[in-house]
Design goal:
The structure is a single chain. An eight-stranded parallel β-barrel has the order 1-2-3-4-5-6-7-10. Strands 8-9 form a two-stranded antiparallel sheet. The chain is an alpha/beta fold. About 40% of the residues are buried. About 40% of the residues lie in helices and about 15% in strands.
Amino acid sequence: MDRKEFLTLSSLGLLGLSSCGISNRQSKNNPSLAIQLYTVREAMSENPEKALERLAAMGFTGLEIYGYNGTFFGKTRNEFRQILSNTGQRVISSHHTTGMLRREPGTLLENWEKTVEDLKYMGTEFMVCSYLFPEERTPEHYRKLPGILNTAGEIARQSGIQFAYHNHDFEFEDFDGTGKVYDFILNRTSPELVQMELDLYWIAKAGFDPVSYFEKYPGRFPLWHVKDMKAGNRDFTEIGNGTIDFAGIFAAREKAGLRHWFLEQDSADKDIFESIGISSKYIRSHRKIFSE
């Protein structure tokens, strides 16, 4: 795609979103249309700039990135920031693992200060603990986790970045006779230092109601992953093609403290960009659910 073609497509995409009330305005009631780049991880691995151009042309101006390891998808921070300038996008949030057992650059326990510095340079608002590897899901590691999260959150806060924790379904398992792992994390971390990125698919798959958590921990959920779940095998599907009650969940956005939400689809039974297009079309046609 040449530069002229990209700018034309991008302009058309953004105009379409603006006409639906889903533009690049930033507020808790009308967040920008954004995407977690893990959704297009194969395209990002092949050519990050082309992948981002394609997403920008579809109207995605906000990004949540993953995989920082001292570089951004193999690019220096200056190179990656220039790509974002070219595509008209910005990094809202970034995902990182703990480093408890896989201590690598970009993890919470390996030179975290430098990671925060680089993400601050990118203009990032949030940094998120994204995942616990299976070998980290033990009582011993769960007990260490709140302290690790609080420390990472304090370092991020010193640079003006809010830290958060992203769930899957295993956090809703019982822990040591004291309740769910998720509640253990919520109750033993500082709300100022550690907020939550709620994945609507994974909490639904675990059999729990997001709104009940908004009621119990109001204002603690500024970030959401928005994805849908098939009725039969409960696999990932496009937004609007599954069973998750987005209207009921988004109606409680103020109680949750929502500031940004990201479209994400971990896998698809068709080309992933086709799936993203289906989800985008549903969001546009149901704008009252997602943007008011």
